[in-house]
Amino acid sequence: MANRIAVALNALADPTRRTIFERVGAAPGAVGEIAAGLPVSRPAVSQHLKVLKEAGLVTDTPDGTRRVYRLDPRGLGALRDWLDRFWGDQLGAFKDFADQQESSE
Amino acid sequence: MSIAPIVQSVTVAVPPDRAFTLFTGSIGRWWKRGMTIGAKPHEEVVIESRAGGRWFERDEDGAETEWGKVLAWEPPGRVLLGWQIDAAFKYDPDLTTEVEVTFVPDGTGTRVTLTHSRLERFGESAERIAAQLGGGWPGLLQLFAELTEKEA
Predict the structure, then answer these.
(1) Is it true that domain B7-117 has CATH number 1.10.630.10?
(2) Cβ A97–B26 below 8 Å, yes or no?
(3) Is A48 in the same domain as A94?
(4) Which residues of A touch B114 (CB under 8 A)?
């Protein structure tokens, strides 16, 4: 679960990436718009956006020839999905165990 | 702000009192290996049979790792557990989400329903983790608040 949230927090531990993330949060945009006025190169901004995307913090959608980045609203949703599978697996294991006890009695 | 609880059910072949005993008393035997938080695989998982009791795992060396506590002990129909494991899968005594398990007769067996609620508290815990990692991040706190509201 963790892993998902920890990856997100790690991604945001970098101050430049945090700035980029906050910019995307303030207004969705393409790389050029996000990079404008930042003291980092556009390729560097692209790289940071890639990390944020892999961490589940932003998504990108094509808009003509460019890609528009916006915040990924699923943040805590990812945690919930993980827990849902986690408990499904555990209850399945409990059922196997309990039914086995029944048939061995 | 709240997040919809997770609800999962299964029907088992044994009656409620037996299901309750197996679920709580033999949890270390059915809990999936590797899905624990101790440094080593669990040898045992213990749910102490009383309100206020501990919920923890024990490894082969006898080392114990807390999971949470028993909030309500009502055999054979219900147990309410405090799950004190955070979003980074670490024990956090300042965090309690709730895992309620009910045992309802279903034919000759039992319908077992598990509800994990108060999930919004994970967001608060995530905020603490964020603060520990990087100092004050007002933007991130705000983000988590917004995400939780969207989930609600």
Answers:
(1) no
(2) yes
(3) no
(4) 87, 90-91
Residues A96 and A65 placed together within one structural domain of the fold: no
The answer to whether the beta carbons of residues A67 and A52 sit under 8 Å apart is: no
Residues A80 and A31 in one domain: no
- Asked if residues A87 and B6 have their Cβ atoms less than 8 Å apart, the reply is yes
What's the mean pLDDT when you consider all of chain A?
Answer: 82
pLDDT exceeds cutoff 90 at A82:
no
Sites in chain B below the pLDDT cut of 50: 1-2, 130, 133-152
Domain total for chain A? 2
| pLDDT grade for A18, boundaries at 50, 70 and 90 | confident
Residues A61, A45, single domain; the answer is yes
Q: Quote ipTM for the complex.
A: 0.79
> With an 8 Å Cβ cutoff, is B116 touching chain A?
yes
> What does the alpha-carbon distance between residue A34 and residue B63 come to, in Å, rounded to a whole number?
50
What does the block give as tokens for A11?
């991604």
